[in-house]
Amino acid sequence: MLLIIAIVGTTVAPWQLFFQQSYLIDKRITPRFIRYERVDLWIGILFVVVGAGAMMAFTATAFAGTRGQGNYTDALGVAQGLAAHAGHWAGILFAIALIDASIIGAAAVGLSTSYALGDVLGLRHSLHRRPSEAKAFYAIFAGLLLVSAVIVIIPGSPLGLLTEGVQTLAGVLLPSATVFLLLLCNDRGVLGPWTNGRGMNIFSGVIIAVLVMLSTVLTASVLFPGITSVQIIAIFVVGTVLTVVAGAYLAWTALRHRNKAPTVPVDPARPAEPELDRATWRMPPIALLSKPVMSAGSRTGLAVLRGYLLVASALVVVKVVQLAMGS
After folding, report:
1. What are the residue ranges of helices labelled H in 86-228?
2. CA nearest neighbour of 163 among 68, 69, 77, 61
3. How far apart are CA 155 and CA 144, in angstroms?
4. Which of 315, 322, 3, 312 is nearest to 174 (CA)?
5. Max alpha carbon distance in the chain (Å)?
């Protein structure tokens, strides 16, 4: 379960949500370019998924029947194993690809954190600015890269376990980031004509439910190390039932609210309100946005989610420490 959630966390990492938003703004991209950005995104998804599948396939083939099968240590161990079992050049090509991915990952994660801190602290944070114009932004970015490099070069550092643990933590925290993203995507004051439709909300809700169930299984496996496969399946069955019940309740609530909404008579002498143009939409300044009204149910749900994620994150750390100590 640790590995499964880590795969989810490294594929749909929470920091990607914040990075994509900040980077689009930094590139001065407006809504009329969204169609091209989606094409660019799908091309990237295709290459990444095909590449990841190929890496899983050729490493599984190379390590099949050897002592390294199922005994992952870190990326260096994979490269050395490929060189030993699949040829010297296979190990070299894997190492080159890994360096390329590491450079991209370090830049993207570092920039995402720098953007976020710049937003929170009100700093100038843009690659369009010179280092002399945004000293704090570039200092944070350089500091993150330096700390990461120091961790990597520490002798005996369990890099494989650290990588898996960080990605698992990202997978556990993903439901929280996705919930808040879903709330924003349904805020008409923020997104105007770009708010989610019913189908996208249902799709997003299913994804969040699956992620919560995965982290629930991980939490249960830490608290109860002797958990069986039957009990794990039972967790998924109960989670699915609760998801369906919650979805039905939300749909019924929305329908009842819609039926109770007063109908405004149409005045033929009054001109119709113009449709909002998706291509020219801009979010109003934050100071002009009205504060969202949260129902008691929404507040309770968010409080429960925060508490659960706090416990789940702590248990991920416990699980990583247990694995590091060999227990």
Report:
1. 88-121, 135-153, 159-185, 188-191, 198-223
2. 77
3. 20
4. 312
5. 82
Q: What is the rounded distance in angstroms from the CA atom of residue 310 to the CA atom of residue 111?
A: 25
Residue pair 123/115 in contact by the 8 Å Cβ criterion: no
d(CA 262, CA 48): 50
Q: How confident is the model at residue 146 (pLDDT cuts 50, 70, 90)?
A: very high
Rounded to whole angstroms, the Cα distance separating 246 from 259 reads 20
What residue type is 298 in one-letter code? S
User: ∠ at Cα 63 (61, 66), nearest 5°?
Assistant: 130
User: What proportion of the chain, given as a percentage, has pLDDT over 70?
Assistant: 92
Length of the chain, please?
327
pLDDT value, residue 156: 80
**Pick from 151, 154, 132: which is nearest to 143 by CA?**
151
Compute the radius of gyration of the chain from its Cα atoms: 24
DSSP 38: H
Residues in Cβ contact with 281 at an 8 Å cutoff, skipping those fewer than 6 apart: 31, 191, 192, 193, 194
Could you read off the pLDDT of 91-129 as tens digits, one per residue?
999 989 888 888 888 888 888 889 988 888 888 888 888
Give phi and psi for 86, each to the nearest 5: -125, 5
**Which whole number is the average pLDDT over 27-39?**
84
User: Dihedral, CA atoms, 33, 104, 317, 300, nearest 10 degrees?
Assistant: -10
Q: How far apart are CA 205 and CA 240, in angstroms?
A: 12
> For 34-59, what is each residue's pLDDT tens digit?
888 889 889 988 988 898 888 889 88
How far apart, in Å, are the Cα atoms of 55 and each of 58, 128, 280? Answer: 5, 36, 42
Give the whole-angstrom CA distance, residue 125 versus residue 139.
11
